[in-house]
Amino acid sequence: MKLLELSPSGLYCPPADAFIDPWRPVKKAIITHAHSDHARWGMKHYLAHQDSAEVLKLRLGQDISLQTIPYEKSIEINGVRISLHPAGHIPGSAQVRLEHRGKVAVVSGDYKIEADGLSKAFEPVTCHEFVSECTFGLPIYKWEKQSLIFERINTWWKQNAENGLNSVLFAYSLGKAQRILNHLETSIGPVFVHGSIWQTNQALIANGLQVLDSPKAEADTLKAKMKGAMIIAPPSAMGSPWMKKFNPYRTGICSGWMNVRGARRRRAADIGFVLSDHADWEGLIAAIKGTQAEKVYLTHGSTAVFARYLEESEGIHAVELRTLFQGENGDLGDS
């Protein structure tokens, strides 16, 4: 019996009769993280990391049947030993390790290699089979250290504030927004967030995570309080009437897609910052090598190119796996 197979409902572990990040309603769903392409509504029972508990309830409903466990703790389902391990993607993100009859498979979900100071850092898990995303699986994607990116963000904000301008920075509401908040130089000015980010922050704080608890940027916020402010908002707010209250302002976008074709992907933004919650080309290779896997399944992104590279240059057997993991919020996604 296979330990993992692709079914119409998603990645399936037959001996455990459980699915990992299924895209259709099933009885038992193991969730790698709370982004909406991985954590969908309608499952009879969910298993996830304990740091995902409150944000999953926020997104899927307070009455979901949810079991949470810490990293490294094993549980057994139908003879399959299951444990969750740090993925470093967002708070509570996990790799799912499945062990049955001496064989080990790991489903990584989404991950990044650089520790972000918010999520538990990625740890490679030795296995026979490894399922890996390759969102940025091309050699052109190479991230700078996040400290340099945050230095540029803070410098941009300071320059705007000195010129009497507010700064509106677009970033995905779960993971990247909190990562940015925790690295802002708050001595520059006040910090506000969009309502969706504020709700997410409250859920994460309730789960015990250390997140800068910034107030909502509401309609009745006095303009005097907004002077030289930093406002963090999801990409969906770009160009919306909600933005008018921040005039005069400059806009920026944080995304791995800013690495190339920046002018087009920035759309109406004034500046783009290359900051991703996914591994770059070198990070993907390092992570895969770290697992010592005999076979690698690739999902989402440049699967064909990356599979060819692994086969021809690294001697790793790689197979493309067609899934519905596509990120969130349009072309910027959760990148």
Structure, described:
The protein is 22% helix and 25% strand. By secondary structure, it is an alpha/beta fold. The protein folds into 2 domains: 5-141 and 278-332, Metallo-beta-lactamase, Chain A; 146-273, Rossmann fold, CATH 3.40.50.12650. The strands form 3 sheets. It has a 7-stranded mixed β-sheet, with helices on one face. Strands 1-2-3-4-5-6 form a 6-stranded mixed β-sheet, with no helix packed on it. The chain has a 5-stranded parallel β-sheet with strand order 13-14-12-15-16. α1 links the parallel β5 (45-49) and β6 (66-69). It starts with a strand and ends in a 15-residue tail after the last strand. The model has no long low-confidence stretch (mean pLDDT 93).
Work out the helicity level. 10-25%
Order of helices and strands: EEEEEHEEEEEEHEHEHHEEHEHEHE
Overall 3D shape: globular
Largest sheet: 7 strands, mixed
Number of strands: 18
User: What is the count of distinct domains?
Assistant: 2
Structural class: alpha/beta
Approximate strand percentage: 15-25%
- State the strand order across the main sheet: 7-8-9-10-11-17-18
CATH architecture of the largest domain: 4-Layer Sandwich
N/C terminus separation: 35 Å
Q: Average pLDDT value?
A: 93
Q: From the alpha-carbon coordinates, what is the Rg to the nearest angstrom? A: 20 Å
CATH level 1 name of the largest domain: Alpha Beta
Total of DSSP H or I helical runs spanning 4+ residues: 8
